Amino acid sequence: MADDIFITEETIEGADDGPLAGTTVAVKDNISTEGVRTTCGSRMLEEYVPPYDATVVTRLKEAGATIVGKSNMDEFGMGTTTETSYFGSTDNPAAPGHVPGGSSGGSAAAVAAGEADVALGSDTGGSIRCPAAFCGVVGIKPTYGLVSRYGLVAYGNSLEQIGPFGETVEDAAQLLDVIAGSDERDATTREAPTDGDSSYADAATGDVDGLTIGVPTELLEGADEGVVETFWDAIADLEAQGATYHDVSLPSVEHAVEAYYVIAMSEASSNLARFDGVRYGHDADADGNWNDAFAQTREDGFGDEVKRRILLGTYALSAGYHDKYYKKAQDARAWVKQDFDEALAEADVLASPTMPVPPFELGESLDDPLQMYLADANTVPVNLADLPAISVPAGETDGLPVGLQFIGPAFGEARLIRAGSALE
Ligand code: GLN
Question: Which residue intervals are annotated with compositional bias (Basic and acidic residues) in the record (predicted)?
């Protein structure tokens, strides 16, 4: 039943040997693959074939991996369920009849269904961690700057990172080893220390003896009861292995969803301006003047959620409103960062439920965008603060997967991998 997981099924062979030889990888369809169409889940790019590989794809090939397809996603990464895809929705292999989460739902589903050993997604506000949690697999959102964004089609460029999915923490960590590291084509990247481990994969020791865990009380408020219960069972398990926990407070996260959506939509309105029917993708072929052709191309090419965000983002950046919305959101972003710094000064890692709710039923959330935005409450603060986080399976509630999120200091991925592997 792979037909709803991939937008394009195509085998791309890598080098004969390397650390990922024999490993199959699903790649989210907003990551450029030379000669293989890259749609971003949009009609706008239905026939767009990139002339170059993203840096992460070059690294996969060099490591000997075999790419098996381009996976389904919310249109341009805008969504939490993969249902805004122009190509239709994806079923959740771990909970049939439910969404796989989003926006990297196809990538998580590919791993959960055994269609690929590992997968790449992108996370602007939770799009790796949410589908990992909903599909019962592991997903890592790296520190901003750890992984090159060269060849990733931009949605909210100051927020997003490419990151790995795996069935186990070690599998995901091994993929992170391959894609991480500075890239001369992305000036925001840098080399990072690994807490003394020789690789991220080596950090998956499961040793949490002495680990201090801060639990932000704000990230449990309003969460589903079964999710909260599963979360505390997992914390008790970590305690039994020698970790300790204490409550911490992040007062600013109350404003994180609002701030995130103002920033993400503003950046989206600018990043998506390039889709004009001239340089990329769909061309409405409208007669008449260029303004009409431009408008018609975008009217046909973009779905409702993308249009909503371009309109709101353009409004938020417009003269007269810029300070009221965009600048205010940037202030909130700085406050969120500061709150995390303070909490992480007193704990090795922070822990919360990845998603406050179990996976929605297919079709359930589409009519109410606000409800969908609020589901991102626990993931978006991490992107605002540029920090790394991992989602690991914590158990189930009513037969539906629940994910636990660990958040660490900048470039503290090895620590998150160690903590996450203790729950396996
Ligand atoms: N659900 C969030 C959004 O729609 C996050 C998406 C993402 O991380 N790409 O913006």
Answer: 182-193
The CATH number of whichever domain residue 399 belongs to comes to 3.90.1300.10
Task: Report d(CA 110, CA 95) in Å as an integer.
Answer: 14
Q: How far apart are CA 329 and CA 41, in angstroms?
A: 28
Atom of ligand 1 nearest to the CA of 79: 4
Q: How far is the CA of 362 from the centre of ligand 1 (A)?
A: 18
- Among 54, 48, 13, smallest CA distance to 33 is for 54
Digitized pLDDT (tens) for each residue of the chain, 424 residues in all? 467 999 999 999 999 999 999 999 999 999 999 999 999 999 999 999 999 999 999 999 999 999 999 999 999 999 999 999 999 999 999 999 999 999 999 999 999 999 999 999 999 999 999 999 999 999 999 999 999 999 999 999 999 999 999 999 999 999 999 999 999 999 999 988 766 778 999 999 999 999 999 999 999 999 999 999 999 999 999 999 999 999 999 999 999 999 999 999 999 999 999 999 888 888 887 677 888 888 999 999 999 999 999 999 999 999 888 889 999 999 999 999 999 999 999 999 999 999 999 999 999 887 788 888 999 999 999 999 999 999 999 999 999 999 999 999 999 999 999 999 999 9
Nearest Cα to 48, choosing from 150, 153, 176, 165? Answer: 153
Catalytic residue among 103, 122, 352, 391: 103
Residue 99, in any domain of the structure: yes
Residue 82 lies in a domain: yes
Q: What is the pTM of this model?
A: 0.97
127 is catalytic: yes
Query: What's the domain count of the chain?
Result: 1
